[in-house]
Amino acid sequence: MIDLNWTSSGPNQVVLGDNLSVLPCLPDASFRMIYVDPPFNTGRIQSRQSLKTFRSETGRRIGFKGLGYDTIKGRLSSYDDSFEDYWEFLEPRLVHAHRLLSQDGTLYLHLDYREVHYAKVMLDALFGRDCFLNEIIWAYDYGARSKSRWPAKHDNILVYVKDPSRYYFNSVEVDREPYMAPGLVTPEKVAAGKLPTDVWWHTIVSPTGKEKTGYATQKPVGILRRMVQASTQEGDWVLDFFAGSGTLGAAAEELGRKFLLIDKSPDAFEVMTTRFSLGRESRRTELVSPNLEAAGE
After folding, report:
1. Domains of the chain, earliest start first
2. Could you count the other beta carbons within 10 Å of the beta carbon of residue 286?
3. Nearest CA to 105 among 167, 52, 57, 174?
4. Tens-place pLDDT, residues 209-247
């Protein structure tokens, strides 16, 4: 195991290491919310390259008002999203997630259509069927469009609570959505927006937007912020042990929560180092790179 030295009174932490080596070091019931966004087991290499566009008199791309633009390609990041036994890989990590949740805590497991049905059965056995709170559908509209079947344009997020009689949920604090038929409600309701349902319409991270870090599977802050708003209060700890680009940490920091982020990918650690290192003295974020050889990496 890794000597992590994490305490609930300490600073935010970003840890480079195998989560199955790090998680046993953490004490029971330490986190009010855990977000798990594992590889989706698509069976193929996932990759993405960051792009930066800038104005240029000799630019080969023509944009608004006929102005020229050039594009610089950034770092290419990729990972192998293929497992011979996906559930042998994921189950022990979910067992730790259950142990680490506080009694009033909530787990969000982010998957897609390939594995979500198996995950529901596993989590029913692990948490209990009465601890199942929701299946959230995150719907978006981007990417390829199949002509041989209905194009897949959503992810599935399973929501389980540690104790169905004690869990924390605050719908008042979550970001609201615009009404799809504003003419059918009062102006006051239009101005306030409506409470989200279990279907969340939210765009993906724009390949050229300011939020983009260049990490292959980055999730938008808006999606994670809504989870944090609903399931935690200011000062609570949240955990993501497939942290990737660190979006849960960005949402938590924005909302005054504390975070522990874990990932074994050096690319992910580099992205999070950049994302959370500026102003570290005021942010109080530690970047922890344990002895990977001792951790069995």
Report:
1. 12-288 (3.40.50.150)
2. 15
3. 167
4. 888 887 878 999 999 999 999 999 999 999 999 999 999
